[in-house]
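Practice problem 4.
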């Protein structure tokens, strides 16, 4: 029970109850509460800043997210605790608890770092995506406005063209009517002129016949007088 209490006590402090200097080999573990079954010398050993600097042989590898390797000499720690008067099982349990706390803390830190990286990556990609979406919306809006303007101009030009076509049709109709009236008038004038010429021709023939008759009568009268 004392071992379990010590393990729980170690696990309650989490990553804030100790600090590790990875790569330098120096560590500090704080926050342990003295248990009636753990000698004070063992507690001082656990809190000693020079404890982990004496580890030379690695008996366990602690992996954080499978990317980093942290070397911990658990065997030396167990032997040191036993040398301070702790039973072998309690020393191993405390060492296992410390290793488990370190594993959990490093895993939490790694997950936190990965989460921040993913968040920054997502933010990095979401900003251009948002800008692209905004540009796409602006382009669609400009395209709609341009299409509306083109439709408006096309409708205006079509209306003007239809009006111009109708005006030209009316002018052609008026010109056709004027041409028809002029043609009819010319035809009437021509017919009138022909009739006048015919009348003049009849008068000329009549005058010619009268003149010939008169000349003939005068000639007969002269001949009769001479004879």
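Answer key:
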């Amino acid at each position: 029970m004392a071992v379990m209490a010590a393990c729980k006590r170690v696990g309650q402090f989490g990553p804030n109850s100790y600090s590790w200097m990875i790569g330098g080999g120096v560590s500090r573990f704080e926050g342990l509460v003295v248990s009636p079954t753990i000698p004070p010398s063992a507690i001082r050993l656990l809190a000693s800043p020079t404890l982990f600097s004496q580890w030379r042989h690695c008996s366990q590898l602690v992996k954080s997210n499978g990317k980093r390797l942290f070397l911990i000499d658990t065997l030396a720690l167990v032997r040191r605790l036993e040398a301070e008067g702790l039973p072998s099982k309690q020393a191993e349990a405390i060492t296992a608890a410390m290793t488990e706390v370190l594993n959990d803390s490093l895993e939490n830190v790694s997950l936190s770092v990965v989460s921040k990286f993913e968040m920054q990556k997502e933010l990095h990609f979401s900003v251009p995506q948002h800008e692209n979406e905004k540009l796409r919306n602006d382009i669609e809006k400009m395209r709609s406005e341009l299409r509306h303007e083109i439709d408006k101009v096309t409708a205006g030009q079509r209306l003007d063209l239809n009006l111009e076509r109708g005006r030209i049709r009316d002018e052609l109709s008026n010109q056709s009517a004027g041409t028809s009236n002029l043609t009819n008038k010319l035809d009437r004038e021509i017919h009138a002129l022909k009739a006048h010429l015919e009348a003049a021709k009849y008068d000329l023939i009549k005058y010619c016949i009268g003149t010939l008759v008169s000349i003939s009568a005068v000639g007969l009268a002269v001949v009769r007088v001479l004879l």
